[in-house]
Amino acid sequence: MNWDAWLPPLVVLSSLLPGLIIFVLPEERVGLRTVLNVTGAVAKLLLVGWMLWGVAQGHHYEARLALLPDIELVLRADPLALLFVTLSAVLWLLTTVYAIGYLEASPHRSRFFGFFSLCVTAAIGVALAGNLLTFLVFYELLTLTTYPLVVHRGTEAARKAGQTYLIYTLAGGTLLLLGTVWLYTLTGTLEFTEGGFLHTMDAAHHRSLIVIFILLIVGLGVKAALVPLHGWLPKAMVAPAPVSALLHAVAVVKAGAFGIVRVVYDVYGVEFAQRLNLLTPLAVAAAVTIIWGSLRALFQDDLKKRLAYSTVSQVSYIALGVALFGPVGTIGGLVHLVHQGIMKITLFFCAGNYAETLGIHKISEMNGAGRRMPLTTLAFSIAALGMMGAPLTAGAVSKAWLVEGATAAHMPWVVWVLWTSSLLNAAYFLPILWRTWFRPMPGAWPDEHIPARRWRETVWLLLLPPLVTAAATLVAGIYADTAISPLAWAQLITDREYFRATP
Amino acid sequence: MSAAFFYALAGAGLFSIGLHALLAHRHLLRKILAINVMGSGVFLVLAAMATRNGIAIPDPVPHAMIITGIVVAVAATALALVLMLKLTAETGQAVLPGRKKEDNP
Amino acid sequence: MDIPWAVMLIVLPLAAGLMAFVWPRVAQTLVLCCSLAIALAVAGLALQLWHHGVFHHALGGWEAPLGIGLYADGLSLVLLTATALVGMGVSVYASAYFTLDDAHHFWPIWLFLLAALNALFLSADLFNLYVTLELMGLAAVALTALSGGRDALAGAVRYLFATLSGSLAYLLGVALLYHAFGSVDMATLAGRMTPVPAAWAALGLMSAGLLLKTALFPLHFWLPPAHASAPSPVSAVLSALVIKASFYILLRLWIMLFGPFAGDGVAALLGGMGTAAIVWGSVQALRQTRLKLLVAYSTVAQIGYLFLAFPLAAAAWNAAAVLVLSHALAKSAMFLAAGNLLHFGGHDRIADLDRVVQRLPLSAFAFALAGVSLMGLPPSGGFIGKWLLLEAALAQGRWDLAAVMLLGGLLAAAYVFKVLGHAFTQAAVTHEPTAVPARMEWAALLLACSAILLGFTATPLLSLLEIGAPFGGSGP
Amino acid sequence: METLIAGAIDVALALAVVGLAWGALASADLFKAIVLFVAFGLVMALVWVRLNAPDVALAEAAIGAGVTGALLLAAYAKLRAASPDANVARAGGMRGIGSISIRILILLLAAALGCAVWTLPSDYAGLGKEVAANIDRSGVSNPVTAVLLNFRGYDTLLEVMVLLLALMGTWSVGATAPQRETAPGPVLDSLSRLLAPLLILVAAYLLWVGAHAPGGAFQAGAVLAAAGVMLLLSGWRLPAALAALPLRLALAAGPATFLLLAVITVLLEGRLLQLPPLWAGRLILIIETTATISIGATLIALFLGAPPGKEDRQ
What we know:
The complex is a heterotetramer.
Chain B (H helix, E strand, L loop, with lengths): L2 H22 L3 H21 L11 H32 L14
Helix pairs in contact in B: 1-2, 2-3
Chain C lengths: L4 H18 L4 H26 L2 E4 L10 E4 L1 H24 L2 H23 L3 H19 L5 H32 L4 H7 L4 H18 L8 H7 L2 H56 L3 H22 L4 H29 L10 H4 L1 H15 L5 H15 L3 H26 L13 H16 L4 H8 L11
Chain D lengths: L1 H25 L3 H21 L3 H29 L14 H22 L9 H7 L8 H9 L1 H21 L12 H24 L7 H17 L6 H4 L1 H24 L8 H28 L10
Helix pairs in contact in D: 1-2, 2-3, 3-9, 6-7, 7-11, 7-12, 8-9, 9-12, 11-12
């Protein structure tokens, strides 16, 4: 039997099956549920590792299932897909560990972890999708599986947030569907192909193709939280911390951004998109989002809200990089897909720790938190500095490449946008660091319910994940030019996109 | 012209009268009568045209259809009547309880 | 001689119904076996059609036009499949739902209803279709009234008048066709049709009658009260199968007899009514505060989709057929799930569903899955149907229709999540819950899952639909 | 001359039919409406005679006018018992614009129908010839019976099911206000004792004659039902011993026999209801006999409303 056809489905199943089993588990079977979660995550990680090795060797992993007479459900592991798959797999493992610690005593854990696994399944499917239809299927699945997580708390606020989330995402999905079907009626194929499959279309169709591009980008922009489609993201903060972490760093927003990458590179093809003058508007939209998100972040006192707006701003770096015509910018955008994920999830883990340990939700309450929770705060600081693009962090790498790309694409204004954004990032992160490290501790924390024991400032399940990701932030920054770094992988993808070079 | 057409027109008339009564009346027993009149109208059209070029032995197929139809009609009438009575026992009136306008046949 | 599966589909339920009437004690076992046998027979018929093409059976050995013909092609097969699957689900559900006394009344009528549906989907004779329509209609009305009570009776009476007048209009049309073209056999008529006034009148009368039975807006007035007040398993059948039967006849008539000369005007009219139905039905569903009424209005809306196929003609019949099947499965699942919530809580006020997700997870899950299919979200039969329909619309540049489909999907999402959103809330438990038998929960869930799985079986389904080219203008 | 008279009769009958229907549907008094409706049925029977449809005439007289009339009158009596204001709302439910527009629509409909009927080709292309050509293989010489029980026997099979189904429905809806037990006057009593056997004989004759002359199972069943109804009105009741299983057997016998025959034929001849010409006559007689009993029983049960022994439910 040919394993190459089986690997992609197995990667999807490795989180689907545990999820389905967990649903039927009674609430009190904590042990078995934990085992299922972790084995699923680890198994996925191993499979992904196998595929990474294989693809680097030039293996071709692809599975097809006829869905409609001449459209198939395609799962394919090309380099771009693996970039996202790897990110999701790694962060899923960490988030699972974190969530197990976080939801120690809260109700409905079976339901939570069930949908949690399905959500990751959907994200993996989005990553591995080999054509636009498959992408659409998993994209909608992602909407459906994240909804229960958003409303998990069951409060009125949660219900409202869930409604907003659905209104945005389902509307976006509808536009995506319209664009996809329209494209199909024009071309008769939806297969993702490096360099795109539309450049052969004759000029008569170009106008429709432009409209379709707008439909697709708007449909994807909702999840990628492009201004003004970002409204749902801050509201969704009512969800438990692990969910926010997943929503922001991996699953949802990244699915949107990743979709934009796919559409530009593998549907339209970057040259063709450039020929239709579609890239500059995209760049502008991304730039606006970057600035706007940072500005809004400045004025949030609620920690998670500030992080949310920071996400709005940071995710658009990816779209921006994609919109910069030329390999350098592309590399910057792609690598940021990974880097932003690592850094942002660190920040959310830490925010969760503050809330769970000391009951801190507002920035104004964070005075001296660094003394009480040094390790958490250390991780937080590293990630925050990374976001600002401080040297030796992953953030620095992606920003450097983006700036390079902007100059290479003769878009000087983009450079200014990037610098401004960095300044704004500093403006909303540095005060936090200052408070936590240098302000005196208050007499009592808002609601402390995890006592500190010697060096252990909180439950180790909560402590481990952020430390790991923070370390990863540094490693990805320092060893950026080694062969196994995300950067190297982004370069491999870019080579294929621009020069059709296959290893 | 032969009488056939004339009877057929009468049949069409019966159908229309019945339909009008069905829509106009609220009392269920009258609606039931109306349905039966509509039915007779259909049967009349069916049988009348079977004799339209005055053959001595007309086409028997419509006749068979009519007999089937008559039996179906009596079955439906019986069911309608018992439903009417039951509803009257519940509401005290042999009319459909008033609803929003678009629900009113 | 190969086994006449199609004949079994009619004879089995009739025989079982008579036995259930005479010996109520054995009724339940009888029904369960019978619905299983029906499913097997449909499978057998499918194989038969797959290998030998269309099925034709001259009843009594008299060929049409003198005799009556049974006929089965891909389209009939799809509807028979829907009947078999929903029939099994509802039989299992009902075996736990009814009190003993009600059950004794329910089983024979239910079996006759199944027989009527199968006979209808197999008939190639316009007058025979009238008889099956009446058999089906009376059975449906009787079942609607089964639970008694003011609302149920009123709904049943309203339904009875609607279905009877519809049948009579249809019959008058048949009479005109017979006297104009000398036959009631569809295939024979198809060869003789000419656009004489009688044909137009028949088109008007038969369409009007069948549209009334299908409850296409604005002729839907009777549906919500009847479907909402009937016992839940009955509501499921009414929404899933009974209204589809009249739609099926309409589709056949249109493709074989009237479409060729009626032209685009009528098709556009039907499309317009479909559009109105989608918008009106969805908005009404959104405004309801009672769960079963919401589901009933959702049926009004979903019927609209089927009629969007008429202006798109040949390109969209497949889509309509897929939608018929997927809606049958999803809607029956939804009504059964709603029935469970009703049974569990003793009320169906959406606003206080009392954390059903925790307390009745299977039913809530079934409701959600069915909802996914109704919204046309992937992966589900509803999605496949919507995709095909959308493809046809865009290929012909019918942006208006495409917009309606997408809007309808969003509205559907709105009313489905209106229910699910409340299902997650932490509202205090306001009542003493009654336990729901597992059979009832699983029946709903399995039907919902089949609606989802339909999304992966589109290719074989579509190739089955090709048998006998029901949409190629040929047919019975 | 004859044609002229005939024409006059036809015109008179047609007008009478329409007039009676109108009267029945418009009359202020409900009871009057029902009586007019029964009269309408009887005149329809005459029309059928004029249209050379004696079988239909019999069916109409026995079922259309007879049984339906009896059902309507019984229902009316119960209605009076249940709600004193049985005559409520004789006027239309919709008024003003609604009713006007309805009227206009109906007139348009009538006009359209008339036009459609009028323009039908006057040279007739029915199935009369086919029937005539095959009748000697049908086992009976009365063409209508041949169509009902052989050429289109499947329709009839489903039709008897419809009748039984109506009874199932009636029973499932449950007993309504019990029949008021009026002690039968001596006249009715003796009359019924006299008539009942006679009617049964008539039924038997109709059944037998159906093979070659107007008549048949449905007409016979209806007459049988008339006899039963008459006995019921004169206070006779089904013995409790027969009320349950035996009654249900009697009700199901006809449909069951028909169905059984259908199955046997499909097994032996390969086609559902394919009656071998040699046996057709006898088989049809068997079907019709059992059907007559069941139809009679069903109609009586429908008249009663509730299953025997359960009149005093609720």
